[in-house]
Write a structure and sequence with these properties.
The structure holds two protein chains of two kinds. By secondary structure, chain A is an alpha/beta fold. Chain A folds into two domains: 209 residues, Medium-chain alcohol dehydrogenases, catalytic domain (Quinone Oxidoreductase, Chain A, domain 1); 161 residues, Rossmann fold (3-Layer(aba) Sandwich). Chain A has eleven helices and 17 strands. In chain A, the strands form four sheets. In chain A, strands 3, 4, 5, 8, 9, 16 and 17 form a seven-stranded mixed β-sheet that branches. Chain A has a six-stranded parallel β-sheet with strand order 12-11-10-13-14-15, with helices on both faces. In chain A, strands 1-2 form a two-stranded antiparallel sheet. The two termini of chain A are 15 Å apart. The model of chain A has no long low-confidence stretch (mean pLDDT 96). The radius of gyration of chain B is 28 Å and the shape is flat. In chain B, helix 2 packs antiparallel against helix 3. Among the domains of chain B are: 55 residues, no CATH class; 58 residues, no CATH class. Chain B is 41% helix and 0% strand. Chain B is an all-alpha fold. Chain B starts with 13 loop residues before the first helix and ends with a helix. The chains are: A alpha/beta, B mainly alpha. At the A-B interface, strand 2, helix 3, helix 4, helix 7 and helix 10 of A face helix 1, helix 2, helix 3, helix 4 and helix 5 of B. Bound molecules: nicotinamide-adenine-dinucleotide and zinc ion (2 copies).
Chain lengths: 379, 186
């Protein structure tokens, strides 16, 4: 697929990518997914997003070709590829900050490399395609274990790993009350993971009832539809003995709804780096001395964040792009133990040819859409 | 309650939660959490180099001026071109990531790129088609009414903006073309 301007995508023929570095691999994609982050691209909210760019940072596939220095993979291997592109050896990678690599993104030092996510994340075409160039093939990709379901493997490349990472950023201690803003794939996985960390209560907030139902069944959470309450923060305070939540996980990002002015200036007119509504709710809804874990993605320009209250409340704000592959060994154990079944949230499976429909449906949240898997024609 | 030292309504006990929720507390000990602590020197990333080999250097590849050198690996998709390319190059060469001008120029570049590419597409066999590319034709199959109006949804309040944002520029461009054309004839 290629981007043709805000809200517009189509399928186009492109050449099969070439090996451009000795540690590159070319992967033939067998399954890809559309992520909430792709909506920021689709809506034209990411900077230096060039017409003709191919999206897709969640994909699995089969190794089609390897560069001369690749040792860990061979042609024909079935691989899952983390959304992060990283070298494994720079100052940041050497410390485990695998989502913050300094050696792959010439366009920005603040951002690591991400597949199919504009030139602000390095200018690499993504995996909603038949073939994709995978740099540092010895570092990022891993062979899919035989016992693992392919859809579960696909979800590990971003959404599941991100939600699990987000629960860790909350520094949850036993018995904590955890509020998760956003019942998209990331929020659902974060809510589910909060229990693994020992949460005593998990409350998920969204305005889409069908997603909140999933939060109740899939993530065993209590739910609040913020469009039905007058003031979400007052309700959260009432629910928590007037304290606020011990931990709030923000899994919404730049398109947050709930305040028309902020949504329109931040998300539609692009006067901010994204609509900060959910982030501000997190700051207002957490207790003093509490922790806010921020997973939502924002553009690189300023947003109107209520920083004063964050200071006054003595909050800990933790955030990052998820270092996906660090999560995998432990997540595989959880999946094997039956604690997690990632593919339970998949609602749609569409051929790559129908990509425009897939984006419209996910963006407008139609037809009960939570997670859409894209099947390339060559798969 | 917030006014006394303990929570008035304590959350359910560990035993209760463990019985109800599969895997409850499996990662209670931070040592089991893969991202704890945030920075670690003992992980094996798979890299078998200290500094990776360099992809062939392209001197025209734009880079952030906060970078001291071109990164050893870089993306080669959609190289800079046209007027939008000139705007973007200026943003990269003149302003650091710390400057609003850097990002505002890049946003301008994005809009110019879209106009340049829409125009270019009209000279090809596959001109841009805002109807098929927005996927709106799928609406009828995807329960447009039931999805939006069965329950309370906050986004329904600004839904009207989307067609204006997407179709507006096309209608405007059509009108300008029409005026120019009429102006020439008259
Ligand atoms: N940090 C990372 O590594 C990382 C990785 C993946 C995704 N993300 C980000 O996580 C966010 C969520 O991703 P997703 O795939 O679940 O997207 P999604 O669009 O499916 O989910 C977002 C949900 O938030 C809801 N929402 C909107 N406004 C809200 C508000 N004010 N309060 C509560 N809920 C609100 C929406 O209705 C929707 O259900 C996105 O911003 C995405 O970019 C971050
Ligand atoms: Zn993502
Ligand atoms: Zn690195």
């Amino acid at each position: 697929m290629v981007y043709r301007g805000p809200y517009k995508v189509r399928v186009e023929e492109k050449d099969i990518p070439r090996i451009e570095h000795p540690n590159d691999a070319i992967v033939r994609v067998t399954k890809a997914a559309i992520c909430g982050s792709d909506l920021h691209l689709y809506h034209g909210l990411m900077t230096d997003l060039r017409i003709g760019h191919t999206f897709g940072h969640e994909f699995i596939g089969i190794v089609h070709e390897v560069g001369s220095s690749v040792q860990n993979l061979k042609v024909g291997d079935r691989v899952m590829v983390p959304f992060n592109i990283y070298c494994g050896s720079c100052f940041f990678c050497a410390r485990g900050l695998w989502s913050n690599c300094h050696n792959v993104n010439a366009n920005a030092t603040a951002v690591g490399g991400i597949y199919g996510y504009s030139h602000t994340t390095g200018g690499f075409d993504g995996g909603q395609a038949d073939y994709v160039r995978v740099p540092f093939a010895d570092v990022g990709p891993a062979i899919i274990p035989d016992w693992l379901d392919e859809e579960d493997a696909l979800l590990m490349t971003d959404a599941l790993s991100t939600g699990y990472f987000g629960a860790q950023l909350g520094d949850i201690v036993e018995g904590d009350t955890v509020v998760v803003l956003g019942a998209g794939p990331v929020g659902l996985y974060a809510a589910k993971s909060a229990w693994l960390m020992g949460a005593g209560r998990v409350i998920v907030v969204d305005h889409l009832d069908y997603r909140l139902e999933k939060a109740a069944t899939f993530a065993h959470a209590e739910t609040i539809n913020f469009a039905e309450v007058d003031d979400l923060i007052v309700l959260l305070k009432k629910e928590t003995d007037g304290l606020g939540a011990d931990v709030v996980i923000e899994a919404v990002g730049a398109e947050a709804d709930g305040n028309l002015l902020q949504h329109i200036t931040g998300s539609k007119l692009k006067l901010q780096g994204g609509s900060p509504i959910a982030l501000n709710w997190a700051i207002d809804g957490v207790r003093k001395g509490g922790t806010v874990s921020i997973l939502g993605a924002y553009g690189p320009i300023f947003s109107a964040i209520k920083f004063g209250d964050a200071v006054n409340k003595g909050l800990t704000l933790r955030m990052n792009q998820a270092p996906v592959k660090r999560q995998w060994p432990r997540l595989l154990e959880h999946i094997k133990a039956g604690y997690l079944k990632p593919s339970d949230i998949v609602t749609h499976r569409i051929p790559l040819e129908h990509i425009a429909e897939g984006y419209h449906m996910f963006s407008s949240k139609l037809d009960g859409c939570i997670k859409t898997i894209v099947l390339p024609s060559a798969a | 309650m917030a006014y006394i030292s303990e929570k008035t309504h304590p959350n359910p006990s560990a035993a209760e939660l463990r019985a109800r929720i599969p895997g409850w507390g499996a990662d209670l000990d931070p040592v089991n959490r893969p991202s704890f602590p945030r920075e670690r020197r003992d992980l094996d990333s798979g890299a078998h180099w200290d500094y990776p080999e360099e992809q062939p250097r392209d001197p025209s590849r734009e880079k952030s001026i906060e970078h001291l050198q071109l990164t050893p690996v870089y993306g080669t998709a959609q190289p800079l071109k046209g007027f939008s390319g000139a705007i973007r190059r200026f943003a990269y060469e003149r302003f650091s990531e710390a400057r609003a001008a850097h990002w505002l120029l890049l946003i301008l570049g994005d809009r110019v790129d879209a106009i340049e590419e829409h125009l270019r597409s009209f000279a090809t066999l596959r001109p841009d088609n805002p109807i098929t590319q927005t996927g709106v034709l799928s609406e009828f199959r995807r329960h447009p009414i039931k999805s939006r109006f069965g329950s309370k949804r906050a986004d329904v309040k600004h839904m009207w903006l989307d067609p204006i944002l997407v179709a507006g520029p096309w209608v405007l461009a059509g009108y300008v073309v029409y005026r120019v054309f009429r102006g020439k004839k008259g």
